[in-house]
Amino acid sequence: MLVVVVVAVIVVVVVVAVVVVAVLMLVVVVIVIVILAVIIVLLIVVVVVVVVVEVVVVVVVEVIIVVVVVVVVVVVISETALGTNESVLPHCDVRMACIHHAQSHYPDTGPTRHSTRSIMPDTRRISC
Predict the structure, then answer these.
(1) Domain count, the chain
(2) What would you measure as the largest C-alpha separation in the chain, in angstroms?
(3) Interatomic CA distance for residues 27 and 29, integer angstroms
(4) Which stretches within the chain are classed as H helix?
(5) Domain containing 70: what range?
(6) Are 121 and 106 in contact (CB under 8 A)?
(7) What are the transmembrane regions (predicted)?
(8) What pTM was estimated for this model as a whole?
(9) Is 72 inside a domain boundary?
(10) Residue 25 and residue 23: Cα distance in Å, rounded?
(11) Cα torsion at 43, 47, 53, 57 (round to 10°)?
């Protein structure tokens, strides 16, 4: 009878040990699966953020390039179409004002009856 009790106790201990080990293994597997799922989600988020940032940066750079090209083309076309005296650039207006100022203060800069000089003043002598 004692042998049966000892065997029964051993069987119960072994069964309990197997169940405890199985539960612990299941908990470990669940923890590993959760950790892997979190890592995968974080990787997906990082990839999406990197792709979005890259697309935004590329679009911004392209817009800047287009704006610069359009401004340069407009300035070049206006310079070509209007000529230097009526340019949209401010330095030309300043130059014309300087020439008018010089013509009013230095009448000898214009052509004379006997000279063949240009009607434009010698701007090297003029400081506006």
Answers:
(1) 2
(2) 149
(3) 5
(4) 2-82, 90-105
(5) 56-83
(6) yes
(7) 6-24, 29-50, 56-77
(8) 0.43
(9) yes
(10) 5
(11) 140
